[in-house]
Design brief:
Protein name: Transportin-1
Subcellular location: Cytoplasm
Keywords: Cytoplasm, Protein transport, Repeat, Transport
Oligomer: single chain
Number of strands: 0
Distance between the termini: 60 Å
Largest sheet: none
Length: 295
């Protein structure tokens, strides 16, 4: 069973349109037969089958075949059940589904949006960095889809501290060694790159240099900064009453062990520099004093 499901999942990932095509000799498109079975496997006791079936269905969000559209309620019900799955990879795929849906089919999430946001806030702090990273993509996706800001507004006092916390270097960050050697490593424009998931778009980025420096690895820290950047452009100075006390506290922290917090605060200021430029002026003196000490 696992072998067959693994083969099907690879087809869904590489050439999903093949199963959503009319094939001579068949009375219906293959996906019409496979997708209901995939949805049933969401409840399998086998972790591998849950993971493979969910990843297979996720590959059809962009194509949105009729059978998936007609089964959307069952799909969403399955996602909510799998949201608390013990397997991190399954939880990551649940987050990926919500991110894709908010990007291209936001209307189907509208009745459940509050619950989805609450879930994303929770898993944005997941013990698995991969789950937290996928959850963090939701905030950027929401902003880029130009959805009503008021749906997020009440959650900002909880969301902003999470983003700022996740902007500190993780202990196992591949670029941490270089950052420690440099004392504090400013992010370049290319570090805050656009969101990209090869599995989501059935392709991969064109990489000219496969030995590119490890500091360019897309991670939770940079994703959080990108989300904060977009949120600042949507909400402007509105985010400052929540954000600035945290930033100032981190900047004022003393001791060699707190340098990662200070660096995260500097990264946050850079992220909101454009969206909150007017509101930042009154804070300049408070911000500059700790920065001068750091230099």
């Amino acid at each position: 069973m696992e072998g067959a499901m693994d083969a099907l999942s690879k087809i869904c990932e590489d050439v999903p349109q093949v199963l959503d095509s009319d094939i001579p000799g068949l009375s219906e498109r293959p996906i019409n037969a496979f997708l209901p079975r995939f949805l049933q496997l969401f409840q399998s006791p086998n972790t591998t089958l849950r993971k493979l079936s969910l990843s297979s269905v996720n590959e059809y969000i962009m194509l949105m075949p009729t059978v998936l559209y007609m089964s959307m309620d069952k799909y969403l019900q399955g996602l909510f059940i799998l949201a608390n799955d013990p397997a991190p990879e399954v939880r990551r795929l649940v987050c990926a589904a919500f991110v894709q849906l908010i990007e291209v089919r936001s209307a189907v999430l509208e009745p459940h949006l509050r619950n989805v946001i609450e879930y994303m806030l929770l898993v944005n702090k997941d013990s698995s960095d991969e789950v937290a990273l996928e959850a963090c993509e939701f905030w950027s996706a929401y902003c880029e889809a130009e959805l009503p800001p008021e749906n997020l507004r009440e959650f900002l006092p909880r969301l902003l501290p999470i983003l700022l916390s996740n902007m500190a270097y993780a202990d196992d960050d591949e670029s941490l060694l270089e950052a420690e050697e440099a004392g504090s490593l400013p992010d370049r424009d290319q570090d805050l790159k656009p969101r990209f998931h090869s599995s989501r778009f059935h392709g991969s980025e064109d990489v000219e240099d496969e030995d590119e420096d490890i500091v360019n690895v897309w991670n939770l820290r940079k994703c959080s900064a990108a989300a904060l950047d977009l949120l600042s452009n949507v909400f402007g100075d509105e985010i400052l009453p929540t954000l600035m006390p945290i930033v100032q506290a981190k900047l004022s922290a003393t001791g060699d062990e707190t340098w990662k917090d200070r660096e995260a605060a500097v990264l946050a200021l850079g992220a909101i520099g454009e969206g909150c430029i007017n509101g930042l002026y009154p804070h300049l003196s408070e911000v500059m004093n700790p920065l001068q000490v750091m230099v």
